[in-house]
Each structure stands twice: as structure tokens, then as C-alpha cells.
Design a protein that fits this description.
single chain; alpha/beta; Rossmann fold; Transcription Regulator spoIIAA; 3 domains; 7-stranded mixed sheet; 4-stranded parallel sheet; globular
Length: 447
Amino acid sequence: MKAITIYSPDNIYSYGSMVIAGVLENAGQNVKLTKKFVLEEAADSDIVGFSLCSTLHLTETTSNLINQLKGHTTPFIVVGGPVSMVPELVFKCLPEVDAVVIGEGEETIRELVDAVRSKKDLDAIDGIAYKQDGKIIETKERSAYKLENSPIPKIPDDIGKQSIRGANVYFETHRGCLANCAFCLIPKYFGQQIIRSKTIPQIKREVRAFAIKGAIRIAIGSGNVALYGIKDHKINEEKVVEMLATISSVMSPTNFAAPDLRVDMIPDSILEAVRKYTYGLIIFGMESGSDQVLKLMKKGITVQKIEEAIERCENLRLAVAGAFITGYPGESEEHFQETKEFIEKHSLVDYTISLPEPIPGTDLTTTILKTSENKNPVFIKDTTSLGKKYDFTVAERRCFELMLSASISRKVPLYLSDRLMQEFIKVSKQQGEEIRQITRILKQHLA
């Protein structure tokens, strides 16, 4: 039996790629999972899958590899992952792709592989898009996957060498989100009204499997940890605590993180469990120090709520980090200054400063497509002395300034060496260039 090769970009084994590879392997298929974007990895495969998360993955690197594969053995090419929510974009950027698995792919990929190899029509497979006579055909939407049916992912032998923000892997305990943040794809990809959770025995088996394969540090990557086991939109505190305790019994608290929580969903019991069963870090998606920008983002929280959450966590001796987005459409200089002052007021253990990435399928993307470049902070040239000095756009300059403020406002301030300053400049400009590239791709193909 020929192998099915699954490519995962950015030199990282994404959790989604491991899940799909595990599903296929569990179904008896010969599967190869690789993070090396080279032809040799799939030279003898008749079906090749690409697990793609960002619009940047739809650019030349992926396109060139697909063209090489088609010129070598003409395999059937499948794309899945977050980019799949807008199949039209995938086919326009990667015209040699044969099919797109839309959304969750566990059941779809099994049926698709069987159909391709038995040469059956694809129109009977729910949850895909494919091309026929030059037209894009989308089949019926597939119903939500039952997580209790999930097999163990295919875990690479070198998973212990991987590092994603300090963890070898961010794994999944549940799917879905009750919020509707304008920049986030999770509610649309996994659902907003119903949260699906794995069973605790399932989670324990999976965590143990990662540990056996050499994973040393793991983290929950499902989003808001408090949503695990939720019933009728009410937090199931007992279930969350049990889940955290179970994982900790396998990995030990020092090697386990459950960092993602919302500032408006933090019962004391869950905060205490995070302190007891993990290494005690919470990362809040604070996003902005401006209530107006938080409204634009549809965060459903206020600056006051964020400040109350910081105080509660620190009173429980939890380390608090904040994730911020600047350069958002509609963010004024006054809004930006509010965020800068917020960061300087609150001494957190760490900060993440990002520019807004328009992910296809999100409300942010809809806004970006309607916003001209001369009104988009990511494109507007900055006219301040700092902006002129470093040739920043408005968004890049704001990103740089927030990085500077964050570095000296941390619990343990960073020494602002020339090297660190150059790194901040580089990261700010690189983010700006990537967002501009994504925006141009979206406008070229979807506007």
C-alpha cells in the first residue's frame, strides 16, 4: 500500500496534522507525517495532504512544492486546516490542489481517501470542495465531529525536540467557544453554541502517549480552559478541576500549562486548580487598553474587567501574562495611548504584542476587505519622528512602542540593549510585512 504523506509547515508538527495522520493510521492506512517541505518526503505517495493554518501558507513555498509533486508522480492533493473555511481562496492561490477538506477533517479525510483510491465520485462526501470542469463544487456541510471517537494522534518520534512557546505540543481537550471575537476563527471552525469535550480517560491516554514518545512539556491549546465539560453554558468547575488534576498526575505540574482563560470566566476553584496542577501561568487575551477597541474586536469584556481579573489572579499568586493586538482597524492614536498606558500601569510577567492577522472566514477579514490601504494602519506610513527614523507604518510603530513599554514594565524588566532594540524593530516590521502580504492576497482573490 502506498503511503499517504501529510505535510505540516513552518518546521512544526501542528496538532491538527498529528490528529489527521492518527485518524488515517487508525483506519489502517500507511501514513507519513513530515514537517520538511521537500519533494522527497512524498515522492512515492498517491495522496498528499497539507495542513495549513495561515494565509501565508498559500504562497509560493507551498505552491512550488505542489507543482513539483504534480510533475513527479501526480498525486491527489488535499488541503485542510483553518484556511479551508474559504475553499475559493485555496483553489485560487493553489490551483493544482484537487480537494479541500472544509473544517473538521477526521471523518471527511477517511471517506475522501477511500473514494480517491476506489475512483468513486466525490459529490457524496460531505464537507469538501473540489473542482469539476473548471468549477468549484462544495458538498453538503458535515455535522460536528464527536470527540469521543477520537483516536490517539500520530506522534512523531522527535516530538520532544519541538518547542512552541515553551511546550513540545499544545494538545486538545475540547472544541468550540462561546465568545465571538472578530479576529478569531474558532467559533466558526469548531462551533459557538455547543462545546464538545473529550472524556477524561481519553485525555489521560493521549497525554500519556505524548509522554511515552518523549514530550517533556505540554500545554492545553483548545482556547478557554474553563469551557471544558461545560453544560448549558454554565461552567462545570468540578470537571475542569478533575481534568487538570488528571493531566498533572501524568506530566507533573512543572511540565504542564493550561494558560488560556477569559477574564470573565475565572471561578476561584479553576484559578486555584491552575495554581496547584500547572506551573501557574495564565495568559489573558487582553488585546487592548481601550474599551472602544475592545468593542471593535467584539471581545465582550471591558478594561475594568481585565484589571479585576489581574488583581484576583495575583492575589492567588498566579503569574499573569497579557496578549495584545495593536494596529486594529479603527484604532486611533488615542486608543493606542490608552493601551500603552495600561501596559505601563500593570506589571505582568510577560507580554505578547501582535498586529491583527485577517484570517479568512473571520469578521476581521470582512472589515479588512472593505478598508482601503490609506485607512489601514498596517499600510499607512507613520509620520512621527520615530516612524520616520525606522521607516515604520503606523501599526509597526505602535507595535514597536508597545514592545518597548512591555519590556520595561514586566515583573522582571528587560535590559534594553541595542541588540534587543534591533530585534523589536525587526519583529515589528516583519509582522507588518506579513500582514500586508496576507491582506493583498485576500483582496486579490476575495474582494
